[in-house]
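Help! Submission page says 'invalid entity' but I think these are all valid:
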Amino acid sequence: MSTRLLRKRPARIGPATLSAIVLLALAVGLGWAGIAALVATGSAAAPLTGTSTAEAAGGLHWNSALVIAVGVVLALLGLVALILGLSPGARRILGVSADGSDHIDDFEVAMPTSALSQIAAAAADGVDGVSGVKASSNAKSTIVTFSTPIRDSEPIRAEVEAAVKDRFAAISFDRTPAVKVQARRSQS
Amino acid sequence: MRRTAAAANRTGLIILGLIAMALGLAVLAIGFGLTASIDPALEAGADLGPVASVLALPYSALIAVIAALILAVIGLRWLSAQVPRKDFAKPFRMQADSRTGLTTVNAEVIAEAVAADLESADGVSDAQVILRGTARRPELLIHVAADERADIDAIIADTAQRAAGNASLALGAPLSAVALEIAIARTRSRRQRTVNIQ
């Protein structure tokens, strides 16, 4: 199959929802002004003017600070939306290689980057002397930060790194993520 | 695992982005006097009167209402497309000869059975399954929540061999595609997981 069943890149649901809401707000504002003008004059040929905002806008100059600011904001928002639409975005899953079986023609296995963090944190948590763990991952690497009450944290750091690397090695990732371990001394 | 409107979202964002950027840059170009050489009316010191006068044209209120309706339809459709869809297969028709009657099986029912089968495996705490495709070419989408210390490769092998085998046997056809997403089940913090031995 050419198309993958699992989505690798973000679907941009947040920005799309926000844009849709902005479109709806514009529609409400425009519709409100239009209907108000239609009702006020009572004829279908009513113009939209007469509101104070329209007249105030007519008195502005192109080089006034307000107009320039609106232009800058519009251009920047447009640029952000364009980048969000064009850039593929961070990969949200990691491929795991797996043998299929006779019952399956096409087998696809993946693990979200959040699962990677949780596995790394659990592996680090099992090391003696570790009092707290945080892990964050992208598709290529995992950063594990652990806290320990021990003054010389280097031996524990090495042990944590070995534990996390062992755990990752036991999973047949297409590309095993790199592991970086940082120690933070906890106050105790 | 559920379907989202990823392509539509990106297209919409690109179109909106281009429009907003073009408008913003046009405003800036006039504001900084770059367009005065093209049209003297568009010099930096001019007021926005010509733009505002468009609103004074007859029928502009009606046009605004129509434009608002179109914008509202686009906005609502785009918003409703954000709800992720499961898109289960239509009920499978399993009979060999439709003259003797129809045998239909709901895809949800099979998916639930596969999920229950998966949950019986070691290290799997929760499974969600979506069945798509047809009775002859079924596709399974599986989301498994595994324990954080579970043997991931064993879960994958078990899914491929046992669970997929059972599903394929039940459907009477090989599975044309299986997608397995393995997440980690949320467990309580270490303190709460501690077991006291007396």
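Support: the input was valid. A stray whitespace character was the problem, and the output above is from the cleaned input. Chain B has two domains: 6-80, 92-186.
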